Amino acid sequence: MFVGSSRLPKIFGSVLFVCAGFLTYGDGLLFEKIYLALLGFVAVLFIRDINLVSIIIISAAANLSSELLYPLVISEQFQVSLKLATYLVTCWTLYKVSEDSLRWPTVVVVALCLGAEAYWYFTSQEAAMIFWYVLLLTINLWVRHFLFARVFIMAKYFPKRYSSLNLDHTLYQLVFFYILLHQFILVEYVLRRVFDLPSTFVYYAAPYIFHGLTTYSALLVLIQGYILISKNWFKA
After folding, report:
1. Could you count the other beta carbons within 10 Å of the beta carbon of residue 37?
2. Residue in 49, 31, 56 with CA at minimum distance from that of residue 143
3. pLDDT value, residue 104
4. Least buried of 11, 14, 104, 149, by fewest C-beta within 10 Å?
């Protein structure tokens, strides 16, 4: 049994992480670090459950990649090359994730962004940094893809230990809203910067919505952990 006699302190520690999420509402950078710490905490707690750990790896990899790429995005030295790489990777991603229901809406949004980038370039206007949101959108498409394919991948490499978890489906559905919100952000950006529509509602509301979605995803991970703990109690 991988959860020992100190179950209650571990559950209490998990609740503290969630409380920290609510207390840091509005401070996205701090909460991202807390969220990553939560994922690490749960991964260590359930280290023997390869299915939960693999889901955590997918979520943590997405958050870490955005954390590591952001300093490059805001650096003028890498912006042009990273912008080009972002759109190329995004187009390749849209080709690969053919099973995703959000594929075609994303194609439309990315085409709109490419049109805006071309407009800014040929009119010698300063381009908005919309490719950052295109990059985040692409990362989330891959998260959806790997959550969808996780069971098949685990069956191939861990045929005796794999299983489907409720967390696969719930996080898969939750990432839908991350992608949808990034799409709204990009459309609003283009409407504001190209067509001069004075709309900033999504831009200012998005950080709080993302914070709420991430807090909810943390709760989903903890609920799955509680389910695993309950199963071990019954086995004991």
Report:
1. 12
2. 56
3. 95
4. 104
Instruction: Write the burial class of residue 120 (CB in 10 Å: 0-12 exposed, 13-18 middle, 19+ buried).
Output: middle
Helix axes 131-157, 166-193, angle to 10 degrees: 160
Task: Give CA–CA dist 129/30, Å, rounded.
Answer: 23
Cβ atoms of 42 and 221 closer than 8 Å: yes
Residue bearing tokens 């503290």: 16
The pLDDT tens digits of the residues spanning 213-222 come to: 988 888 888 8
CA angle 65, 68, 71 (to 5 degrees): 135
Alpha carbon distance 15, 133 (integer Å): 31
Judged on CB neighbours under 10 Å (0-12, 13-18, 19+), 194 is middle
Tokens (6 digits) for 7:
């179950």
Amino acid identity of residue 55, one-letter, is I
3-state secondary structure the chain: CCCCCCHHHHHHHHHHHHHHHHHCCCCHHHHHHHHHHHHHHHHHHCCCCHHHHHHHHHHHHHHHHHHHHHHHHCCHHHHHHHHHHHHHHHHHHHHHCCCCCCHHHHHHHHHHHHHHHHHHHHCCCCCCCCHHHHHHHHHHHHHHHHHHHHHHHHHHHCCCCCCCCHHHHHHHHHHHHHHHHHHHHHHHHHHHHCCCCCCCHHHHHHHHHHHHHHHHHHHHHHHHHHHHHHHHHHHC
pTM: predicted TM-score of the whole model, two decimal places: 0.87
pLDDT digits (tens, 9 = 90+) for 2-36: 444 445 555 565 566 666 656 666 555 677 888 88
Residue given tokens 């086995």 in the structure block:
235
